[in-house]
Amino acid sequence: MQYGIADKKLPVKEQELVSDFFNWSPKKKEEFQEQEISAAYKWMKEVKLIPKGFGKSIE
Fold this sequence. Notes:
This protein is mainly alpha-helical and about 60 residues long. Helices cover about 60% and strands about 0% of the residues. It has a domain at about 10-45.
């Protein structure tokens, strides 16, 4: 069983988030650019938004 970054409950590095995001679904690469994901990550850190996760883990 593989765990995503939310399951690890550890601090997330930007590049790990970007990588996991694009590995989540091939369609994500068509819809988003890496800069958009990085900007969202930086904004979340700035406003101290910490995802808690919910529901079943996606494998």
